[in-house]
Design a protein that fits this description.
- This protein is α/β, with parallel strands linked by helices and about 375 residues long.
- The protein contains 11 helices and 11 strands.
- The strands form 2 sheets. A 7-stranded mixed beta sheet has the order 1-7-6-5-4-2-3, sandwiched between helices. A 4-stranded antiparallel beta sheet has the order 8-9-11-10, covered by helices on one side.
- Helix 10 packs across helix 11.
- It binds pyridoxal-5'-phosphate.
Length: about 375
């Protein structure tokens, strides 16, 4: 029963974000695990067949992979865990809009090929962890196709927004992805832990994770193939994570999610607008439901002792004060070398009143922190 429910949940998640329901996949603990599960499937699919026996040493050329510099730290874990080393990561710069620079991506792939490297994977972000930017996924898909590279999307945070008609275009190209990581425990409001990896051809998961030791017997007494989730990922014994997601999808329904996700985006836009209006705040970025902003003392322009370094220190201290104060929890993001406060709204209970209060609290605490912080 648990397997049948998980299978249906995975299918519904695929349909929900707008890719073919024939994608297969598995529920995992969260975004790190979803991305790691996809990464290894990519490597199995693109590495020589002998990889499982010989390991990396005999791969034809060093296996390298590409992601924007805004990519979440799971990629570093993957590089270390799976034996590539962090030097195999090609950190592609972003444009001023924080999207991966696909011209540099293409150049870097070509340079690697000329230097005898073995590129196998490109990761696109569908809502990067710091600012919520969605890379140009269709351009990345074209590059992957031309070079026979696996196209993985990290949509852990942002991909549920693809369900909203007016944001659908932003996610053009997702249907081309070989694998997609998403996190029901982020923007589908599921309780921790619930992540999911979707794979266009789920046989790649089986090729990567299946094992048939003598002590396993899964004869189902029929000629029908059995879906055994131990063949789709790292875990053998597993909890029934799918149940809460399956129930939520039915209880909330697509329209319910469209409404709640849209409201989160609107609240994030409201926060950005309020920050823009306030003379002691600088609104820095707004994408999906993430707003970044910083506190700037009102006499900033007149006092030449205040510079970017000072503002960064001030905002870092302010963030710590806010977190310790317990009235509001903001995280941080570094955007174009600016240390920013980051508000990521993924709660259907957040209201306009909360946003007004966040602004008031930031300004009040910002002034206090400024008074305490000497200008050197
Ligand atoms: C884009 C992105 N990828 C991956 C992760 C990691 O997810 P988790 O904490 O569920 O492992 C996050 C978490 O914030 C994220 O924003």
């Amino acid at each position: 029963m648990a397997t049948a429910i998980e299978k249906q949940t995975v299918k519904w998640l695929a349909e929900f974000i707008g890719v073919s329901p024939t994608y297969g996949g598995i529920l995992v603990s969260g975004g790190n695990m979803a991305n790691l599960t996809g990464f290894l499937a990519a490597r199995t699919a693109k590495a020589p067949k002998s990889m499982k026996e010989d390991g990396l040493a005999n791969a034809a050329g060093e296996m390298v992979f590409y992601c924007s510099k805004a990519t979440h730290t799971w990629i570093e874990k993957a590089a270390v865990l799976f034996g590539h080393g962090s030097k195999a990561i090609r950190w592609i710069p972003t444009n001023t809009d924080n999207k991966m620079n696909t011209t540099v991506l293409l150049q870097t792939i070509n340079e690697d090929l000329n230097n005898g490297k073995n590129p196998f994977l490109v990761i696109g972000n569908a809502g990067d962890v710091s600012t919520g930017v969605v890379d140009n996924l269709s351009e990345i898909a074209i590059i992957c196709k031309a070079h026979n590279l696996w196209f993985h999307i990290d949509g852990a945070y942002g991909i549920p927004a693809a369900v909203i008609p007016q944001y659908k275009n932003l996610f053009d190209g997702i249907k081309e992805a070989d694998s997609i990581a998403l996190d029901p425990h982020k923007w589908l409001y599921a309780p921790l832990e619930a992540g999911c990896i979707l794979v266009k051809n789920p046989q790649h998961l089986v090729d990567t994770y299946s094992a048939h030791p003598v002590y396993y017997n899964f004869d189902n007494g029929t000629d029908e193939p059995t879906l055994n989730y131990y063949e789709y990922g790292f875990q053998n014994s597993r909890g029934f994570r799918a149940l809460k997601v399956w129930m939520a999808l039915q209880q909330v329904g697509k329209n319910g999610y469209i409404k709640m996700i849209n409201e989160d985006i609107e609240l994030s836009q409201l926060l950005f607008d309020e920050a823009q209006k306030h003379e002691e705040l600088e609104a820095v970025t707004q994408n999906l439901s993430i707003t970044t902003l910083r506190y700037v003392p009102y006499n900033y322009a007149q006092d030449e002792r205040m510079n970017e370094t000072y503002l960064n220190t001030l905002n870092e201290k302010l963030l710590n004060e806010l977190q310790r104060g317990g009235e509001v929890f903001l995280s941080n993001a570094v955007v174009a070398e600016k240390y920013c406060l980051r508000a990521c709204i993924v709660n259907f209970r957040t209201s306009k009143k909360d946003i007004q209060e966040v602004v008031e609290i930031i300004v009040r605490e910002g002034r206090k922190t400024y008074e305490k912080l000497e200008i050197k």
